[in-house]
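Appendix B. Raw example, untouched.
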Amino acid sequence: MEVIMKRYLTLSYQRLSAATVAAYAKPAECAYADCVTGLNEIGFLFINNITGSQQDAEHAIAMKAGEQGASWYRIIRMRENLQPDNWWVQAILYA
């Protein structure tokens, strides 16, 4: 019983820590293609159905990239879906 309880508390603490990091994550900054030389590429990000303006879509990417531990991001594709003010964005994440 004690082992099970310790395991449960550890998992709960890990989830709380992850939620705290996500809540206080700093948004990543936009980097242009000529500025990413020397940065470490750490992944890709794809977000669909972002409602609002183009600036809202860029802000959503910045926040999501920051949550995933990126300091920088570079948008490689952005387009408005068939519905007005509904965006599809793909970005590369950098450390």
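End of appendix B.
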